[in-house]
Amino acid sequence: MSEYPTGTLMAGKRGLIMGVANKNSIAWAIAQQLAAQGAEIAFTYQGDKLLRRVKPLAESVGSDVLLDCDVTNDDQMDATFKALADRWGRIDFLVHAIAFAGKDQLSGSFVESTTRDGFKSALDISAYSFVDAARRASEIMNDDGAMVTLTYLGSERVVPNYNVMGVAKAALEACTRYIAADLGPRGIRVNAISAGPIKTLAAAGIGSGRHMFRFNKAAAAMQDNTDPKGVAGAALYLLSELGASCTGETHHVDGGFHAIGMPQEGPLRESLES
Ligand code: NAD
Question: Is the distance from the beta carbon of residue 76 to the nearest atom of ligand 1 less than 6 Å?
Fold first, then answer.
């Protein structure tokens, strides 16, 4: 039996998930939850090296639609959405779980380490790619469709080493609101989920990651790290009829870390008071 709540909320719905790299990917947690509710899913993967990992995962949720797509490659973006149109005609949802910044951009001083090329590539891959994918997806999306992207609190507050990625996430959240306004009249909803730190390939690229997990656990309202299943549940809500009327929103799923101004009593406070 699936470890994700089963049901029929996504029965008859078809959509694209971009950003599964392996079994730890947030996009994979979302895929499992959507599949457990009856969704039919197509996946993109970034190059042959990742196909080896993504193919068996896709097969385990009954999908044989695997499309090679680097979001910086216009030909691959064209081919991806053409393949979806040829296969299904229309789609109902899009999940965008893609981000990248060079490792040299993700440690130390933001002002010292951010280069012009590093800035351009982080914003291109992590923010513009959602605009591009949303435009292409909207051309074949049913009028009650929905889109979700993944962001992080580093867009709103300074998080050490997150640097240019925080700027890219701020842009991504603004893009989410603009896309929501454009597609709203058609009934297409567009939202972002701001997830707390989760151990994935992308998270491993951020300097002092281990400290980040410990600090989040100690300071979050729930005094625990973020469960990918909670993120997947939020995606199900936002992509299904449960999310009706919710659009342009950045929804935090981070154990309440974002809500805390000063840590409550507990190990973190004690360590500061001793
Ligand atoms: P992940 O490494 O599993 O996924 C990142 C994905 O981005 C990979 O599938 C990778 O192939 C893809 N990608 C990068 N550059 C690409 C390109 N040029 N073309 C196509 N695909 C490309 O890591 P994840 O943590 O699951 O990341 C998914 C999303 O969640 C990202 O937007 C990330 O910023 C966001 N997020 C992650 C965390 C966390 O702590 N892990 C927290 C909040 C938000």
Answer: no
